Amino acid sequence: MSISPKELLNKNKNLNKRIDVDKINLENVTIDDLKFNGKNYEEFINLQSLLENISACQISDAYNAISRRSGVIQKIKPINNKKVWGKIFTAETSSDDWGTSALAIDAAEDEDILFFKVDSEDKAIWGELASSCARDNGIKATVIYGSARDLDALLYMDYPVFASNFCPNAGSALGLGTLNETIDVEGTQIAPGDFFFGDETGIVVIPQQLFASVMAQSLLVKIKESGIIEDINRGKTLVEIAGLK
């Protein structure tokens, strides 16, 4: 099988290259640049350089500056304190139905974030086996507005899980839920393809149409906070920095 010069060039791209925060350029970045497609090397590297250096707090601050919304789903917390980001694949089902989880794993695309809305927290729709399958299918993380289980395994797995609760019991493999449709979680509309960011503090969801502007604002927040830390290290107090005296 022959390989064209263009394919060879793309193959040799250093996808692990990172840029210092003060040199990041997001001018042409879109949400599609979360993945390297062979043509978006500069956009991909600049975006990854930002996302690896910011937090859910900074993204929430940036989103609030643009829209007066936080993007936070308060009840959902990290199970195993992993940092992750990506496009959302939605699913909605009942707590009796872990079968929809299996269907979502098969339907989602590589590097998607599975986001489940579940009608109650009475039973878990996710656990160790589902996490193992999702990870092996190239899915980046799972978020559950509902319950997970198998924390003895999830706490130590290299697969991010976020949930609003956990319990030991599960339902059945019914497969009666819906996939990749807009869901409403705590009054927040979450559509397929929206942006998800989660870390040790919590999660933030950003509408895909605002992704580029929120990323640009997040960079400004990061640079500003880095400057504040430098001021503190030079002896300034928060009172002085905030202009409170």
Write a structural description.
Strands 1, 2, 3, 4, 5, 6, 7, 10 and 11 form a 9-stranded mixed sheet that branches. Strands 8-9 form a two-stranded antiparallel sheet. It has 245 residues and is of the alpha/beta class. α5 links the parallel β4 and β5. The protein is built from 8 helices and 11 strands. It is 32% helix and 21% strand. The longest helix is centred in the C-terminal third of the chain and has 23 residues. The protein folds into 2 domains: 94 residues, no CATH class; 130 residues, Ribonuclease E inhibitor RraA/RraA-like (Glucose Oxidase, domain 1), CATH 3.50.30. α3 packs across α7.
* Low-confidence segments: none
Query: Can you tell me the CATH architecture of the largest domain?
Result: 3-Layer(bba) Sandwich
SSE run = HHHEEHEEHEHEEEEEEHH
Portion of residues in beta strands equals 15-25%
Distance between the termini: 71 Å
Helix vs. strand class: alpha/beta
CATH level-3 fold name of the largest domain: Glucose Oxidase, domain 1
Number of helices: 8
Reported for the largest beta sheet, the result is:
9 strands, mixed
Helix content, binned percent: 25-40%
Secondary-structure map with pairings?
Elements: H1 5-11, H2 41-51, H3 56-67, E1 77-78, E2 84-93, H4 99-107, E3 113-118, E4 124-126, H5 128-136, E5 141-148, H6 151-154, E6 161-166, E7 178-179, E8 183-185, E9 188-190, E10 195-198, E11 203-206, H7 211-233, H8 238-241
Parallel strand pairs: 2-3, 3-5, 4-5, 5-6
Antiparallel strand pairs: 1-6, 2-7, 2-10, 8-9, 10-11
Helix pairs in contact: 3-7
